Amino acid sequence: MHKEISWRSTLIGAVGMLMIMATIALVVILTGSYNVAADERHTTPVEWALSTSMENSVRARAENVQPPPTFTSTMISAGGAEYKAMCQHCHGGVGAAKEEWVKGMRPQPPALASAAKEWQPAEIFWLVKHGVKATAMPSFGDTHEDATIWNIVAFVKAMPSMSAEQYAAYAAESGSHSEEGEGAAHSH
Ligand code: HEC
């Protein structure tokens, strides 16, 4: 009998706690009290929640992505041109700085010359194809074929072991960037 009562009160306590938390969350959402300004840091718990969600979401979804068996030098060099045209301004390169205005972004685009080590090729593919919601990271899947995205992945994975001279030697794609891949087969 006594045991049953303590069980019940624990349950009531837990439900009450959840209701209080949901009410607080709703008040924060409806009153606009959370500052969305990009020039102010997130609070530590929000930053943790966002970055952990992003990481786990990408890792879980990339499990179904099958990378090509090897990255050839042709792929790396084709990817270099794409990278310099579409990624360098936000992520920088080896010995190539990000654009000045990137400082105003939150979250900050990491320097891929080192951050690329922490991601598997399939995860980088997924990130480039689908992008990251509510960040400046765009999805390139609608405008670029999977083969082009794999070239970019090949280049990004090669960056951590590149010297600034090697990086600079890759040709930048000239002026008009071709937007291929419209209506091409998409894999997820
Ligand atoms: C307009 C700026 C912008 C452009 C252009 C851009 N990115 Fe990003 N990228 C971001 C931001 C911001 C993040 C951080 C997202 C986050 O932390 O949730 C990011 C994250 C990433 C990540 C995950 C890195 C990490 O450690 O969190 C990869 C990989 C990546 N981008 C690759 C690319 C590639 C490759 C390209 C070019 C095809 C590209 N990005 C173009 C802004 C950009």
Topology:
Elements (H helix, E strand, L loop, with lengths): L1 H30 L12 H18 L11 H14 L1 H4 L20 H4 L5 H10 L15 H13 L5 H6 L19
The structure holds heme C.
Report the end-to-end length measured between terminal Cα atoms. 55 Å
Number of strands: 0
Number of helices: 8
Beta-strand percent range = under 5%
Query: So, the CATH homologous superfamily of the largest domain?
Result: Cytochrome c-like domain
Gyration radius (Cα, Å) is 22 Å
Q: What is the N-to-C succession of helices and strands?
A: HHHHHHHH
Query: What is the oligomer described by this structure?
Result: single chain
Coarse shape? elongated
Task: Supply the CATH architecture of the largest domain.
Answer: Orthogonal Bundle
Q: Would you give the CATH topology of the largest domain?
A: Cytochrome Bc1 Complex, Chain D, domain 2
